[in-house]
Input
Amino acid sequence: MNWKYIDNSRIKFNILRYSMKWTANNSITPVMYLIDVKIPARFKNKFKQLDKDKLLKLLINEDTDWTTNLLLYDIFEKDATFLWEINRNEWTLEGKAKDIDYWQSVLR
Output
C-alpha cells in the first residue's frame, strides 16, 4: 500500500454540507457535514480492508492520525460537524481521544 496518502502533511479534503430534507416517511433528516478525502479510489478501497489494529495504530501515530480519522469519517459517512472549523492541532486537543474511543467501538 502506498502510505503517502495517509501522511498528515499531504492530505486534501473537503467538508460538504448536506441540508435537511424530508424523507419518504415524513420525517426530516438533519443538516450534516460529511468529509470527502481527495485520494485515488483504489487506495481508499485498500484502506477499507485494513484491520482494526492497524487502523488504531495509524490513529495514534502523529504523522497519520488526522488523515486516518478523516478517511474513517469519509468511509463511514460520520457527521463531521465538529470538524467544520478546526484543524489538526485543535482536533488533537479537543477531539482526538473521543474519536479514537468512537472508532474503537465501531471498527471490527
Notes: Residues 3-106 form one domain. The first strand starts at residue 13 and ends at 18. Strands lie at 13-18, 21-22, 28-29, 32-37. The chain has a mean pLDDT of 91.
